[in-house]
Predict the structure of AI-2E family transporter.
Amino acid sequence: MENIYTPRQRHVLLVASILGLAGLMVFGLAQYLTAFLAAGILFVVFRPIWVALVHRRRWNRRLVTIGILVLTVVVLVIPFYALSSLLVNRLVAFVRNPDQILQVLHKLEQATGIKITEQQNVRQLLQQGTSVVSRWLTTLASSALNVLVVVGLMLFTMYYLFMQETYFLIGLRRYLPFRSETMNELGDSLKNNVNANVLGQALVALVQGILTGLTLWLFQVPDPLFWGVVAFFMAFLPVLGTPLVWGPAALYQFSQGHKGAAIGILLVGVIVIINVDNLLRILLAKRMGNIHPLVTLVGLVLGVEIFGIIGLVVGPLLVSYFLVLMEVFRRENRAAQKKKHQTPPDGSGAPVSSG
Protein backbone atom coordinates (compact mmCIF):
# COMPACT_ATOMS: atom_id res chain seq x y z
CA MET A 1 0.00 0.00 0.00
CA GLU A 2 1.42 3.36 -1.07
CA ASN A 3 2.14 5.95 1.63
CA ILE A 4 0.63 9.39 0.95
CA TYR A 5 3.65 11.25 2.42
CA THR A 6 6.89 12.10 0.69
CA PRO A 7 10.17 11.19 2.45
CA ARG A 8 10.64 14.86 3.41
CA GLN A 9 7.11 15.08 4.84
CA ARG A 10 7.66 11.89 6.85
CA HIS A 11 10.89 13.35 8.22
CA VAL A 12 9.18 16.60 9.24
CA LEU A 13 6.25 14.73 10.83
CA LEU A 14 8.65 12.47 12.72
CA VAL A 15 10.53 15.46 14.17
CA ALA A 16 7.22 17.19 15.02
CA SER A 17 5.95 14.03 16.75
CA ILE A 18 9.13 13.73 18.81
CA LEU A 19 8.99 17.39 19.85
CA GLY A 20 5.27 17.14 20.63
CA LEU A 21 5.70 14.07 22.84
CA ALA A 22 8.71 15.65 24.55
CA GLY A 23 6.65 18.78 25.23
CA LEU A 24 3.83 16.72 26.72
CA MET A 25 6.27 14.87 29.00
CA VAL A 26 7.86 18.13 30.17
CA PHE A 27 4.42 19.62 30.80
CA GLY A 28 3.32 16.57 32.77
CA LEU A 29 6.51 16.54 34.85
CA ALA A 30 6.69 20.32 35.30
CA GLN A 31 5.80 20.11 39.00
CA TYR A 32 8.78 17.83 39.62
CA LEU A 33 11.17 19.28 37.04
CA THR A 34 13.40 20.67 39.80
CA ALA A 35 14.07 17.12 41.02
CA PHE A 36 15.56 16.11 37.66
CA LEU A 37 17.49 19.38 37.35
CA ALA A 38 18.91 18.93 40.86
CA ALA A 39 19.88 15.34 40.03
CA GLY A 40 21.77 16.50 36.94
CA ILE A 41 23.55 19.24 38.88
CA LEU A 42 24.57 16.87 41.69
CA PHE A 43 25.73 14.33 39.09
CA VAL A 44 28.19 16.95 37.83
CA VAL A 45 29.20 17.91 41.39
CA PHE A 46 29.91 14.35 42.55
CA ARG A 47 31.25 12.93 39.28
CA PRO A 48 34.94 13.72 40.08
CA ILE A 49 34.58 11.66 43.27
CA TRP A 50 32.81 8.92 41.31
CA VAL A 51 35.55 8.81 38.65
CA ALA A 52 38.31 8.72 41.28
CA LEU A 53 36.73 5.86 43.25
CA VAL A 54 35.11 3.74 40.52
CA HIS A 55 37.27 4.21 37.43
CA ARG A 56 40.67 4.68 39.05
CA ARG A 57 40.53 2.72 42.29
CA ARG A 58 38.04 0.13 40.98
CA TRP A 59 35.67 0.37 43.94
CA ASN A 60 32.25 -1.28 43.74
CA ARG A 61 30.00 0.87 41.57
CA ARG A 62 26.83 0.25 43.57
CA LEU A 63 28.44 0.93 46.98
CA VAL A 64 29.94 4.21 45.76
CA THR A 65 26.58 5.28 44.34
CA ILE A 66 24.76 4.48 47.59
CA GLY A 67 27.46 6.35 49.53
CA ILE A 68 26.96 9.44 47.34
CA LEU A 69 23.18 9.28 47.86
CA VAL A 70 23.60 9.02 51.65
CA LEU A 71 26.04 11.93 51.59
CA THR A 72 23.54 13.97 49.58
CA VAL A 73 20.77 13.36 52.13
CA VAL A 74 22.91 13.95 55.23
CA VAL A 75 24.95 16.93 54.03
CA LEU A 76 22.53 18.68 51.66
CA VAL A 77 18.88 17.66 51.90
CA ILE A 78 18.35 17.55 55.69
CA PRO A 79 20.30 20.76 56.57
CA PHE A 80 18.83 22.71 53.65
CA TYR A 81 15.28 21.65 54.47
CA ALA A 82 15.80 22.58 58.14
CA LEU A 83 17.27 26.00 57.29
CA SER A 84 14.55 26.70 54.71
CA SER A 85 11.80 25.78 57.16
CA LEU A 86 13.38 27.99 59.84
CA LEU A 87 13.50 30.95 57.46
CA VAL A 88 9.98 30.56 56.09
CA ASN A 89 8.42 29.93 59.53
CA ARG A 90 10.09 33.01 60.99
CA LEU A 91 8.92 35.18 58.08
CA VAL A 92 5.39 33.85 58.48
CA ALA A 93 5.57 34.68 62.21
CA PHE A 94 6.64 38.24 61.36
CA VAL A 95 3.73 38.60 58.94
CA ARG A 96 1.20 37.43 61.55
CA ASN A 97 2.68 39.56 64.30
CA PRO A 98 4.62 42.53 62.88
CA ASP A 99 4.49 44.52 66.14
CA GLN A 100 8.19 43.96 66.87
CA ILE A 101 9.22 45.37 63.49
CA LEU A 102 6.79 48.27 63.80
CA GLN A 103 8.22 49.09 67.25
CA VAL A 104 11.72 49.26 65.81
CA LEU A 105 10.54 51.50 62.98
CA HIS A 106 8.79 53.86 65.41
CA LYS A 107 11.94 54.15 67.53
CA LEU A 108 14.01 54.76 64.41
CA GLU A 109 11.59 57.48 63.33
CA GLN A 110 11.86 59.10 66.75
CA ALA A 111 15.67 58.94 66.69
CA THR A 112 16.03 60.38 63.18
CA GLY A 113 12.91 62.53 62.90
CA ILE A 114 12.18 60.97 59.49
CA LYS A 115 8.88 59.30 58.62
CA ILE A 116 9.86 55.91 57.21
CA THR A 117 6.67 54.08 56.27
CA GLU A 118 3.08 53.42 57.21
CA GLN A 119 2.02 50.36 59.20
CA GLN A 120 -0.02 49.00 56.30
CA ASN A 121 3.00 49.27 53.97
CA VAL A 122 5.12 47.29 56.44
CA ARG A 123 2.55 44.49 56.52
CA GLN A 124 2.42 44.40 52.72
CA LEU A 125 6.21 44.29 52.44
CA LEU A 126 6.39 41.39 54.92
CA GLN A 127 3.70 39.47 53.03
CA GLN A 128 5.50 40.05 49.72
CA GLY A 129 8.82 38.94 51.23
CA THR A 130 7.27 35.75 52.58
CA SER A 131 5.65 35.04 49.22
CA VAL A 132 8.92 35.52 47.33
CA VAL A 133 10.99 33.35 49.69
CA SER A 134 8.32 30.63 49.72
CA ARG A 135 8.34 30.61 45.92
CA TRP A 136 12.14 30.35 45.85
CA LEU A 137 12.08 27.42 48.25
CA THR A 138 9.03 25.81 46.69
CA THR A 139 10.58 22.33 46.52
CA LEU A 140 11.42 22.23 50.22
CA ALA A 141 8.91 24.57 51.85
CA SER A 142 5.72 22.87 50.70
CA SER A 143 3.93 19.82 52.01
CA ALA A 144 5.81 16.86 53.46
CA LEU A 145 4.46 14.57 50.72
CA ASN A 146 5.74 16.88 47.98
CA VAL A 147 9.14 17.04 49.68
CA LEU A 148 9.35 13.24 49.81
CA VAL A 149 8.34 12.90 46.16
CA VAL A 150 10.85 15.53 44.96
CA VAL A 151 13.73 14.15 47.04
CA GLY A 152 12.83 10.58 46.07
CA LEU A 153 12.79 11.42 42.34
CA MET A 154 16.08 13.27 42.69
CA LEU A 155 17.81 10.37 44.45
CA PHE A 156 16.26 7.80 42.08
CA THR A 157 17.50 9.79 39.05
CA MET A 158 20.96 10.22 40.58
CA TYR A 159 21.17 6.47 41.20
CA TYR A 160 20.59 5.62 37.55
CA LEU A 161 22.79 8.45 36.26
CA PHE A 162 25.73 7.00 38.18
CA MET A 163 24.92 3.31 37.69
CA GLN A 164 24.42 3.78 33.93
CA GLU A 165 26.94 6.59 33.49
CA THR A 166 28.46 5.26 30.25
CA TYR A 167 25.11 4.78 28.49
CA PHE A 168 23.93 8.19 29.69
CA LEU A 169 26.98 10.05 28.33
CA ILE A 170 26.92 8.10 25.04
CA GLY A 171 23.20 8.87 24.70
CA LEU A 172 23.83 12.59 25.13
CA ARG A 173 26.38 12.62 22.33
CA ARG A 174 24.20 10.44 20.11
CA TYR A 175 20.89 12.27 20.40
CA LEU A 176 21.79 15.92 20.97
CA PRO A 177 21.99 17.74 17.60
CA PHE A 178 25.48 19.19 18.14
CA ARG A 179 28.94 18.46 16.82
CA SER A 180 31.56 16.90 19.06
CA GLU A 181 33.42 20.17 19.64
CA THR A 182 30.15 21.95 20.49
CA MET A 183 29.30 19.20 22.99
CA ASN A 184 32.71 19.71 24.59
CA GLU A 185 32.07 23.45 24.89
CA LEU A 186 28.64 22.83 26.43
CA GLY A 187 30.17 20.33 28.85
CA ASP A 188 32.86 22.82 29.89
CA SER A 189 30.21 25.50 30.36
CA LEU A 190 28.17 23.14 32.56
CA LYS A 191 31.21 22.33 34.72
CA ASN A 192 32.14 26.00 35.06
CA ASN A 193 28.61 27.02 36.03
CA VAL A 194 28.19 24.21 38.54
CA ASN A 195 31.59 24.90 40.08
CA ALA A 196 31.04 28.66 40.24
CA ASN A 197 27.37 28.71 41.24
CA VAL A 198 27.12 25.59 43.43
CA LEU A 199 30.48 24.88 45.01
CA GLY A 200 31.97 28.36 44.81
CA GLN A 201 28.83 30.34 45.58
CA ALA A 202 27.81 28.00 48.40
CA LEU A 203 31.25 28.38 49.99
CA VAL A 204 31.09 32.18 49.69
CA ALA A 205 27.55 32.22 51.12
CA LEU A 206 28.58 29.96 54.01
CA VAL A 207 31.54 32.18 54.93
CA GLN A 208 29.42 35.33 54.70
CA GLY A 209 26.60 33.79 56.73
CA ILE A 210 29.03 32.77 59.48
CA LEU A 211 30.73 36.19 59.52
CA THR A 212 27.37 37.99 59.60
CA GLY A 213 26.03 35.78 62.39
CA LEU A 214 29.20 36.25 64.47
CA THR A 215 29.09 40.02 63.93
CA LEU A 216 25.48 40.27 65.07
CA TRP A 217 26.22 38.03 68.06
CA LEU A 218 29.24 40.16 68.98
CA PHE A 219 27.15 43.35 68.92
CA GLN A 220 24.24 41.69 70.74
CA VAL A 221 21.61 41.75 68.00
CA PRO A 222 18.69 39.41 68.89
CA ASP A 223 18.56 36.02 67.10
CA PRO A 224 22.04 36.11 65.49
CA LEU A 225 21.70 32.45 64.41
CA PHE A 226 18.50 33.14 62.48
CA TRP A 227 19.94 36.24 60.81
CA GLY A 228 23.10 34.31 59.95
CA VAL A 229 20.89 31.81 58.12
CA VAL A 230 19.14 34.67 56.32
CA ALA A 231 22.56 36.08 55.37
CA PHE A 232 23.51 32.68 53.92
CA PHE A 233 20.53 32.79 51.54
CA MET A 234 20.96 36.49 50.76
CA ALA A 235 24.64 35.96 49.87
CA PHE A 236 23.54 34.18 46.69
CA LEU A 237 22.25 37.51 45.38
CA PRO A 238 24.99 39.50 43.64
CA VAL A 239 25.57 43.16 44.57
CA LEU A 240 23.01 43.32 47.43
CA GLY A 241 23.63 40.11 49.38
CA THR A 242 24.44 40.31 53.09
CA PRO A 243 24.10 44.13 53.38
CA LEU A 244 20.36 43.42 53.34
CA VAL A 245 20.94 41.70 56.72
CA TRP A 246 23.65 43.59 58.59
CA GLY A 247 22.44 46.97 57.29
CA PRO A 248 18.99 46.67 58.95
CA ALA A 249 20.71 45.15 62.02
CA ALA A 250 22.77 48.32 62.37
CA LEU A 251 19.59 50.40 62.04
CA TYR A 252 17.95 48.25 64.72
CA GLN A 253 20.80 48.86 67.17
CA PHE A 254 20.68 52.57 66.36
CA SER A 255 16.93 52.65 67.06
CA GLN A 256 17.58 51.02 70.43
CA GLY A 257 20.08 53.73 71.37
CA HIS A 258 23.15 51.52 70.88
CA LYS A 259 24.96 53.85 68.50
CA GLY A 260 28.38 52.28 69.15
CA ALA A 261 27.08 48.83 68.24
CA ALA A 262 25.42 50.23 65.10
CA ILE A 263 28.67 51.84 63.96
CA GLY A 264 30.57 48.63 64.77
CA ILE A 265 28.23 46.50 62.66
CA LEU A 266 28.58 48.91 59.72
CA LEU A 267 32.38 48.97 59.99
CA VAL A 268 32.67 45.17 60.15
CA GLY A 269 30.18 44.79 57.29
CA VAL A 270 31.91 47.27 54.97
CA ILE A 271 35.54 46.51 55.86
CA VAL A 272 35.45 42.77 56.58
CA ILE A 273 32.35 41.01 55.18
CA ILE A 274 32.19 42.79 51.80
CA ASN A 275 35.96 42.56 51.21
CA VAL A 276 36.03 38.87 52.18
CA ASP A 277 33.18 38.34 49.70
CA ASN A 278 35.05 40.12 46.89
CA LEU A 279 38.32 38.33 47.65
CA LEU A 280 36.71 34.89 47.74
CA ARG A 281 34.80 35.49 44.52
CA ILE A 282 37.99 36.54 42.70
CA LEU A 283 39.95 33.52 43.96
CA LEU A 284 37.16 31.03 43.30
CA ALA A 285 36.35 32.49 39.88
CA LYS A 286 39.84 31.55 38.70
CA ARG A 287 39.81 28.07 40.24
CA MET A 288 36.17 26.97 39.95
CA GLY A 289 34.85 28.47 36.70
CA ASN A 290 35.39 31.90 35.18
CA ILE A 291 31.78 33.12 34.92
CA HIS A 292 31.16 36.78 34.12
CA PRO A 293 29.19 38.58 36.90
CA LEU A 294 26.63 39.85 34.37
CA VAL A 295 25.91 36.27 33.25
CA THR A 296 25.39 35.30 36.89
CA LEU A 297 23.14 38.29 37.61
CA VAL A 298 20.91 37.85 34.55
CA GLY A 299 20.85 34.08 35.06
CA LEU A 300 19.83 34.39 38.72
CA VAL A 301 16.92 36.69 37.91
CA LEU A 302 15.81 34.39 35.07
CA GLY A 303 16.40 31.09 36.85
CA VAL A 304 14.90 31.83 40.25
CA GLU A 305 11.73 33.18 38.64
CA ILE A 306 11.25 30.00 36.58
CA PHE A 307 12.79 27.17 38.62
CA GLY A 308 12.88 28.42 42.22
CA ILE A 309 16.01 27.81 44.31
CA ILE A 310 17.46 25.43 41.66
CA GLY A 311 17.45 28.43 39.32
CA LEU A 312 20.53 29.73 41.14
CA VAL A 313 22.45 27.24 38.99
CA VAL A 314 20.10 26.58 36.07
CA GLY A 315 19.59 30.29 35.24
CA PRO A 316 23.28 31.16 34.70
CA LEU A 317 23.68 27.84 32.88
CA LEU A 318 20.91 28.76 30.42
CA VAL A 319 22.53 32.15 29.73
CA SER A 320 25.95 30.50 29.29
CA TYR A 321 24.50 27.91 26.91
CA PHE A 322 22.84 30.68 24.90
CA LEU A 323 26.18 32.48 24.57
CA VAL A 324 28.00 29.25 23.65
CA LEU A 325 25.44 28.39 20.96
CA MET A 326 25.59 31.95 19.59
CA GLU A 327 29.37 31.64 19.35
CA VAL A 328 29.01 28.24 17.61
CA PHE A 329 26.49 29.75 15.16
CA ARG A 330 28.85 32.68 14.45
CA ARG A 331 31.81 30.34 13.89
CA GLU A 332 29.96 27.92 11.62
CA ASN A 333 28.24 30.71 9.68
CA ARG A 334 31.61 32.38 9.13
CA ALA A 335 33.14 29.06 7.99
CA ALA A 336 30.22 28.52 5.56
CA GLN A 337 30.63 32.01 4.09
CA LYS A 338 34.38 31.52 3.75
CA LYS A 339 33.84 28.20 1.96
CA LYS A 340 31.28 29.82 -0.33
CA HIS A 341 33.69 32.59 -1.31
CA GLN A 342 36.44 30.06 -2.03
CA THR A 343 34.20 28.00 -4.37
CA PRO A 344 34.13 29.24 -8.02
CA PRO A 345 30.76 29.95 -9.69
CA ASP A 346 31.05 26.86 -11.95
CA GLY A 347 30.98 24.61 -8.87
CA SER A 348 34.17 22.80 -9.83
CA GLY A 349 35.42 22.96 -6.27
CA ALA A 350 38.79 24.50 -7.23
CA PRO A 351 39.84 27.34 -4.97
CA VAL A 352 39.62 30.85 -6.34
CA SER A 353 42.98 32.44 -7.13
CA SER A 354 43.78 35.34 -4.86
CA GLY A 355 45.75 36.97 -7.64
In short: Residues 180-218 form the longest helix (39 residues). Residues 342 and 355 are 13 Å apart (CA to CA). The chain has 13 helices and no strands. The two ends are 59 Å apart (CA to CA).
